[in-house]
Amino acid sequence: MRELLTGQQMREVDQAAIKDIGIPSLVLMERAAMAVSEEVLKRAGKEDIVWCACGCGNNGADGVAVGRLLSGAGMNVVIVTVGDRERGSREFLRQVSIAQKLGLNLVEYRDFIPGRCDILVDAVFGVGLSRSVEGEYKAFLEMLGQAGPKLTVAVDVPSGISSDNGRILGTALKADVTVTFGWEKLGTALYPGKEYAGEVVVADIGFPRLAFEAARRNWPEGGPEGIRAFAYGREDLSRIPKRRAYSNKGTFGKALIVAGSKNMGGAAYLSALAAYRTGAGLVKILTVEENRSFLQARLPEAILETYDCLRLSQEPEAYREILEKDCEWADVVVLGPGLGQEDWGEYLVEMVLSSACTPVIVDADGLNIIAANPHMTGYFTENIMITPHLGEMARLTGETIQEIREDLILTAQEYASRFGITCVLKDAVTVAALRDGRTLINASGNSAMAKAGSGDVLTGIMAGLIAQGMDETEGAAMGVYLHGLAGDCWCREKGAYSLLAGELADAVGLVLKNIG
Q1: CB of 298 closer than 8 Å to CB of 269
Q2: Which of the two ends of the chain, N or C, has the fewest CB atoms closer than 10 A to its terminal CB?
Q3: Boundary of a domain, candidates 171, 202, 219
Q4: For residue 319, which of 298, 279, 348, 288 has the smallest C-alpha distance?
Q5: Is the distance from CB of 106 to CB of 82 less than 8 angstroms?
């Protein structure tokens, strides 16, 4: 597991290292420049011409130092600065002075005549950029974007990308590689910044853990300044419970899937299949009678219980005892995939929410029903997890999809905090605001997974993990990561076009085969 920081958080860590611990800023800068130079030299040819594009702040100072090191390594380097040098930061002015004394090719943008550029080092803006790029700086970035280098290496974050949320601030440069320092920034983990960053290399330049802890003590609880974001890596799969040798089907938990309406049995099937593939010992599907033959043929391993939707609509209380027993039987409940939005669906959702004392994962039509009947949020307790896509989140919150997309983290956090639940907000990068205040920024997954039924598989994976004993917050976060890994596993073998949701569920087993 690795932490992800906002630009402000990173600046506070930097200041703690310099002021509280006493590490000279130039020492950190030199190590940063060495890390960038090493990545350039790995990929450069002897005849390549390098442009180091530098602003007048500390990011620009890093860029000037990179130019010096690359020139010392024998490369043909031109260092181009933009902005008023006389008003540059102290570190920038010191790096410029060193470069001038060494006789490096240092030129200001207004005097620069563009020529051939093979490698571009982007050190124009760092993590401090918070407003739209305009004027001379905009023209400079646009000129750099048209230079046509075969390789662009960004220093810390691509210029023009918000380090806090990945938004493009007016205009931005797209990098092939981003070398960031100490910790990855949120802006390169969220779209569109993730796409602009390319490969992200996190370089250890000597920030002590003590500096991070000192800075974190001053971060407020909640809100943009107090984000506690993290991402999982493959090493975190060890958190998944191991399969005990002395066991039976009850050892690995029971999942109840309340899903599927007439002609929508596939959602129930996919969620149940994924729960089994993830390791749940017993899966029961509660669905309409019309789905019986389909589900018995496709997934005979599942326990099947059905209801008559007409009777449920007319006599909802007749099913309350059945639902209460099913919820008591289950270790985890999935509520909503393919359920439909008829009145009987409303009765079903309300009865499950009011009956279940175990973790409940609410998805799809379960969420749409709650959005149409806001009083149902009164049943939300800490055992509730919701898994909306942007459209469903818009219906729950009353915000537009565009407003949500502009700040996925804050939207998820505010909703989770408001009700004391876990909110898994699905997008190209899924964000999971956990009940304990942390936020997962998912690092797995790909566009092959943008298919009908993928969300149903996610709910099943989460249910399978929780059924086996994972805490619901951990199970939600790990479920999101495992879901993406399954998509990545498929994509590596068979490409990005042909994946079906059932195959995604099957791929979960391939990811899990080596963990125990």
Answers
A1: yes
A2: C
A3: 219
A4: 348
A5: no
Instruction: Please list, residue by residue across 293-315, b when 16 or more beta carbons sit within 10 angstroms of its beta carbon and e when fewer do.
Output: ebbeebbeebebbebebeebeee
Total number of domains constituting the chain: 2
SS3 230: strand
* Low-confidence spans in the chain with pLDDT less than 50: none
The 10s digit of each residue's pLDDT in 110-137 is 999 999 999 999 999 999 999 999 999 9
Q: Mind listing the pLDDT tens digit for each residue in 464-481?
A: 999 999 999 999 999 999
Tell me the C-alpha to C-alpha distance, in Å, between residue 313 and each of 117, 286, 302, 421.
Answer: 70, 16, 26, 29
- Determine the distance from the C-alpha atom of residue 34 to the mean position of all C-alpha atoms in its chain, rounded to a whole number: 29
Using CA atoms in the order 205, 209, 211, 217, what is the torsion angle rounded to 10 degrees? Answer: 140
Domain hosting residue 397, numbered range:
250-512
Q: Are residues 203 and 274 in the same domain?
A: no
Q: Count helices and strands (H / E) in the chain.
A: 19, 19
In a domain, 32, yes or no: yes
| Orientation of helix 25-43 relative to helix 90-101, angle to 10° | 60
Identify whether the C-beta of residue 276 lies closer than 8 Å to the C-beta of residue 298.
no
